[in-house]
Prior knowledge:
The protein has 325 residues and is mainly α.
Amino acid sequence: MDPRQTITVIVMAAVFGLVFCIWCICVLLWFGQTLARSRFARNRLGIAREETGEAQTSQLWRDKKQEQAGVTSRKTVTLQERLETLRTVTGWRTPAHMVLFGVGAASLLGFLLVFAAGGSTMLAVGVAAAVVILFWRYVLVCTSKYHVLLDMQFIDGLGICARALRAGLPLLGSFQLISEEIDKPIGDIFDRICREQMMGKDFGASIKKVAETVPSPEFKLFATSIAIQLQSGGNLADLMDSLASVVRSRIRLNKRIRVLTAQAQLSKKILSGLPVFMLLMLTFLNPEYMSTFWTTTIGTYMLVVMVVMILIGTWIMGKLAVIKF
Length: 325
């Protein structure tokens, strides 16, 4: 190798190492700051308090009742069930495996078109990855809209159920009223419960079976409460009102958490997109200067490392911006 090329490679490696070290320091500083803000937010929301003996006793009692009622969540979920849940959440009429196959075919087609047009392998891989990322973002948006709609309709359904029970209707009749008065998705969920009951299955088993397919912790709480109430007895109308109040409180808490973590989410988007934006802008303004990344093996490796670092950083920042409650 020519001594000048050797010096160039050493300088590039040194600059890359310096930038990598600076990036690591920035990530660590950001990690510490975000962790401190997360603890502050949890303390303000009252989430980080230690459980008292009474709370632990109540938790053990609830777990025991769930075990007796048989409404505990399953440990494993099959791939077919995951795909069916994905189809339900996104509202696709086509089976989920066909949609995923189409996305894979579109990604492969984009790769082949770019590669056949004379583009580099990295550019072709980038186009294929962009197709997958855009599809994943679409799925996340659809999932978010589904959960918001499900929670709002669930509150309305609990109110209808409470008023129907006070008017003298049985629990199954109130569920049928919900399925008739409310549209998808909550109307279909209660309609499935009614159909399961009409087929001769136990009422608690019907609610359990449907709750296992609904991607909502609030509905699983509802199914657990109904199963325990059917065994121990009590006022079902008051139970529905209490569940509606709990769901409203969880929605308000979720909104507060989104506000408190909005800065972290915005920082994640900016820090993830800035390197890609700078790379594209410099490539457009000075192609010869950036040609090293596209025409040399070392440049290709650096691009791969850049993509991996961006993905890892995005994943870390996403995890830090999540408050479990």
